[in-house]
What we know:
The longest helix has 21 residues, at 142-162. Helix 7 links the parallel strand 4 and strand 5 (166-168). Helices cover 44% and strands 11% of the residues. Helix 5 (87-94) packs antiparallel against helix 7 and helix 6 (105-119) runs parallel beside helix 7. By secondary structure, the chain is of the alpha/beta class. The protein is globular and about 50 Å long.
Amino acid sequence: MTDRQTLLFIGxxxxxxxRGRTSDPNHLLGHGYVFQIAGKLGLEYGADAPEVVNRGVxxxxxxxxxxxxNEDAIAVRPDLISILVGVNDAYHIVNGDPRxxxxxxxxxxxxxxxxxxxxxxxxxxxxxxxxxLRTGGVAERWDxxxxxxxxxxxxxxxxxxxxxxxxxxxxxxFDDACRRAPAAHxxxxxxxxxAAGHELIAxxxxxxxxxxxxxxxxx
Length: 219
């Protein structure tokens, strides 16, 4: 038997997955990679499976996550925090929106990781790489999108190393998948994954994290 752990997933619309805001278990986790990860862990481990919490919010940037970090992350007291953010930071900068007037991505991301390490020193951190594919609206300004997200991917990798977090690469995964099917098969608008795209993320997350429930009485 195991002590049941809590896994918190937080980020933007890709994590949100149109999740419900009530306790209805059919909608609580949304319809994306978080739901698929929870399903696989629930099937494999039964009553010992971790509690999975989804706190994704559509439209969020790294600074938005930081603004709600106490309520939606620290207060949950999770054993593991999985973060996927960056595409909205890039969107507002690439499109010249006032919300992207200054680039706070790395600074805000670094702050929330620092605070997490201080408040939850034993929590495992998992940082997912932001990604996009050249299809849909993204294709119109692909060079700008590609450059900005490459910058963010480097930043997330650096932050993972600095804070002892697990880094989950995703861009190369989607690029390789495009050899088997067009980009829109995986990410319909260049930003939001399809069911197949979310399954790619879920499998990669499980492979890289190698998550296993903690043994009762263990560390």
